[in-house]
UniProtKB/TrEMBL annotation:
The keyword DNA damage does not apply. Residues 67-76 have a biased composition (Pro residues). Residues 169-312 form the Cell envelope-related transcriptional attenuator domain. Residues 1-86 are annotated as: Disordered. Gene3D superfamilies: LCP protein (3.40.630.190). InterPro entries: LytR/CpsA/Psr_CW_biosynth, LytR_CpsA_psr. It comes from Desertihabitans brevis. It holds the Pfam family LytR_cpsA_psr. Residues 1-23, 37-65 have a biased composition (Basic and acidic residues). Keywords: Membrane, Transmembrane, Transmembrane helix. Belongs to the LytR/CpsA/Psr (LCP) family. This is LytR family transcriptional regulator. The chain crosses the membrane at residues 95-118.
Length: 407
């Protein structure tokens, strides 16, 4: 059997037409609706089966673009690699930071306490109206210690020997001159100075205060000196005692024993610390002093200088309790004219400290007769030549010329 016979025998199997028959194209047969529906159903079933076997990928989400760090520089064979360490504050820097905070807090304390305390003080109208002398170079303070018992209890009045007199009178008067250049000068005006009082005739200086208060006292001083008072500062008995006690007392040296019934004073000779009550009796004592009012003004200047030294001492600044008590005591004790502020009071305290430290002048207005008989009793008469010369030197601003009048 040849090859063609075998092929012919297989034609029936593969449904092929015999080779010798002409090939005609198969006619296209249209599928029925049932067949199309079946085919479509089988296709959809195939798609479902394929989706179950292989999950459909989710739509891709666009990741945010992140900066890429630059590649590290190539290693330098000539340098030694360093370790990355956590940066810590250096102990020295930490110390200075803490120190700076403490210094700032101290500065606020040193400034804030006096500012607050000064608001607790009293203002007093002390300058006269009308015509007044022209001003001199520098600043002129009128310092007045009155015998006001305000702030003292009955027991304290009895212990201090101040009496029960109502009102107040000038017990101490001083001029503090702070020139533009040159040393400051502290000048005592004896309370018994016999002077012309405006619209009140001649009388003792302290009578001016009794007649017309601070304004008439200032007018009397200006009229008899030819100087213009720039600042008025007054302190009473109670305030004086409080300030002395606030600094822990004042050390004073007594040359001879002192006993004075009027001031309730009983002191031994030698250096000793005086509390407020003892210090008040010491500066007020007059009858037991052979020099009378002139000896008393010297003790007053001495006490004021010692007090200024205590106020300006480092112990006052470094002790918060003492600093607070002192500022409260000083502000509550002083009465000033409205134009005198905290800066002026500080300048006054520094000037008095300079005087007590030897960098200034202490003197009393030149006296011609310490026991001048007048209708007001024994008085102090100013020297008719030296006193005007002293005041003229101040009017010129020449404090150095005052040295010739020191005692």
């Amino acid at each position: 059997m040849g090859p063609d016979s075998r092929n012919d025998d297989l034609d029936w199997l593969y449904r092929r037409e015999p080779r010798d028959r002409p090939v005609t194209p198969e006619q296209t047969r249209m599928m029925s609706d049932e067949e199309l529906s079946e085919l479509r159903a089988r296709t959809e079933q195939h798609d479902r089966d394929a989706g179950a076997r292989q999950p459909r990928p989710e739509p891709s989400r666009r990741e945010p673009v992140r900066p890429v760090a630059p590649p590290p520089p190539p290693d330098d064979p000539y340098t030694t690699p360093t370790r990355t360490r956590t940066r810590r504050r250096h102990p020295v820097r930490r110390f200075f930071a803490v120190l700076g905070v403490l210094l700032l807090a101290m500065l606020v304390w040193l400034v804030g306490v006096p500012v607050y305390a000064w608001t607790q003080g009293d203002d007093v109208e002390a300058f006269p109206t009308g015509e007044r002398p022209d001003g001199q170079p520098g600043e002129l303070y009128l310092l007045v210690g009155s015998d006001s018992r305000e702030g003292l209890s009955e027991e304290e009045r009895d212990r201090l020997g101040t009496g029960d007199a109502e009102g107040r009178r000038a017990d101490t008067m001083m001029l503090l001159y702070v020139p533009s250049e040159g040393p400051p000068a502290l000048i005592s005006l004896p309370r018994d100075s016999y002077l012309e009082i405006p619209d009140n005739g001649s009388n003792k200086l302290n009578a001016a205060y009794a007649f017309g208060g601070p304004q008439l006292l200032t007018a009397t001083v200006e009229q008899n000196t030819g100087l213009r008072v720039d600042h008025y500062v007054e302190i009473g008995f109670g305030g004086f005692v409080g300030v002395i006690d606030a600094v822990g007392g004042i050390e004073m040296c007594v040359e001879e024993p002192i006993k004075d019934k009027a001031s309730r004073l009983d002191l031994e000779a030698g250096c000793q610390t005086m509390d407020g009550g003892t210090a008040l009796g010491y500066v007020r004592m007059r009858k037991a002093d052979p020099r009378g009012d002139l000896g008393r003004v010297e003790r007053q200047r001495e006490m004021l200088g010692a007090l200024a030294q205590e106020v300006a001492s480092p112990a006052t600044v470094l002790n918060p309790v003492r600093y607070w008590n002192l500022n409260r005591a000083v502000a509550g004790a002083l009465s000033t004219d409205p134009g005198t502020g905290l800066f002026d009071a500080g300048a006054m305290a520094l000037a008095v400290a300079r005087v007590s430290g030897g960098d200034g002048l202490t003197l009393t207005v030149p006296v011609g007769d310490p026991d001048y008989a007048t209708s007001a009793g024994s008085s102090v008469l100013w020297d008719s030549e030296d006193a005007p010369e002293m005041f003229e030197a101040i009017a010129r601003g020449d404090s150095a010329a005052l040295a010739q009048f020191t005692e």
